[in-house]
Amino acid sequence: MAALGICFLLEAILCLRGDLRVELAGNALLAAVVAFGARRWRREPGWVRAAMALLAAACGGVLLWRESFLPPLFDSLQFLADPAQRPTMGYIGKFLRGLLNPAYLPAAAAAAGLGWAVRRRPRTAALAGAAALLAAWAASERPDAAALSRTVKDFYAAEAGRRVAFPARAPRPAFDLIILHVCSLSNADLRAAGLDAEPFWRQFDLVFDRFETVTTYSAQAVPRLLRSPCGQARYEDLLPPPSPECGLAARLRAAGFELDTALNHDGRYQNLLSSLLQQGWTTPPARNSGLAPVQRGVDGSAVYDDGEVLGRWLRSRPAGGKPRALYYNTVTLHTGNAWAGPTRAGRESQAEHYRAAAAELFRGVSELLRGLRRSGRDAVVLFVPEHGANLGERFLQAPGLRDLPLPDITTVPVGVALIRGGASGGPPARDGRPVSYLALAELLSRFIERPPFGPTGAASALASLPETRPVAENRRSYVLEVDGKLYLGWKIGKWTRLRR
User: Fold this and answer.
1) Cα separations in angstroms, 47 against 44, 52, 135
2) CB 162 within 8 A of CB 41
3) Given the DSSP bridges, would you call strands 429-431 and 206-212 parallel, antiparallel or unpaired?
């Protein structure tokens, strides 16, 4: 009973911190089971009492998992059991080390000390813990779930009617298009890694500082990008192939582009290649044969150098003919990657690995931009992160976890480079409005109709771009902001307010 009181007290502290939501019914059931067992099994042999104590602890652990913001337990076990997704043991060890939040240690020590002090009065400890838990639950804010659900419903109803009208009879585009789809890079990641002042961004003509990726996973980021000509779709609507008016691949083909594909990985993890095909980007990826891997992915697969893969595509691009549209996907920054060569092995922290990998990524993209300028051909380059890495997050989610689509993961910087022959522009025009994929489709539509390479091309391209309210969504949850407050909603109709 004393242990039950300590458990209740810890739950109360975490509830007041905003790190879990209390389920009163589950706690009441657990208390009833423990109280019944304490009376029923106290005269049984020691091994029986120990077994019952372990069972009660397991039930308490499952309840605590449900109350936390961790991914559903069944989903987590299914992920670990799937050989196509299961991470390496090295990654699991590094992830478990990162789970420990130092902010919890004082609370745990205080609860343990209190439990020791009242160890001879177990009922008093249990009642005190239950009272603290009930008070914490009463003090927590319970938002208007119906109003928030209605806000989400109205948002998607409005998005369903939004379209970007690509020019019907525009001349053949006079530029190549390169879309760099980058795994795991958010504004918060850049700050956590000390890269927010990186000169890399000065190579772009436009930078969107508040781009909303909507999702925190690559498997959903691909269809969201390739459906950019239409408004934001619900998670459930991403699976079917897009209609011709919503498919970016179809729009680019109709405009006169030949489509290319390149990856710095094999495309099997999270079925990325299958997602590309399903969304209409049907060109097979260029082969990376002969390239030496620089990293190993979370599943042990090869990850190649961005500069080498992009340089190979640039060299193989035909000198004449139709303009090319390249979709390039990179997992250089993916959480759980490890250096392939022994010279770079070591027990570096996640942040240290991220900084080194970001330097490699930025170098490779910079080489591409320089190569495009030397080529003498005009080009538009879109640098679009899929989502963030949750590099430094400890609020609600341990570093590396991305089950909840929090703003620190879904708010990313997007760069647009307008390359005209050997010219190199000045500092980028920065835009802080809330935008998403629809704004990128609108930019491309304008560029196809009127190439943006004049002296005012970058600035004029920003005029009247469509904004999108930041509503993030994963398979089970939403995150949205209302009147400056952040709310997390589950698709079963429950909502909770999140502290920042």
Assistant:
1) 8, 9, 36
2) no
3) parallel
Beta bridge mates, 477: 490
Query: Is residue 454 left, alpha or beta, with left meaning phi > 0 and alpha meaning psi from -120 to 50?
Result: beta
- Kindly report, residue by residue over 384-428, the tens digit of the pLDDT: 999 999 987 656 677 788 888 999 999 999 999 999 865 556 678
Residues pairing with 326 in the sheet: 178, 260
* CB 397 within 8 Å of CB 390: yes
- Summarised one tens digit per residue, pLDDT across range 306-358 is 999 999 999 998 877 789 999 999 999 998 899 997 655 556 778 889 999 99
DSSP states of 322-388 = S-EEEEEEE-TT-TT-EESSGGG-S---HHHHHHHHHHHHHHHHHHHHHHHHHHT--EEEEEEE---
DSSP for residue 69:
S
C-beta of residue 229 within 8 angstroms of C-beta of residue 247: yes
260 DSSP β-pair partners: 326
For the chain, how are helix, strand and coil distributed in percent, rounded to 5? 45, 15, 40
Amino acid letter for position 115: G
Prediction pTM value: 0.84
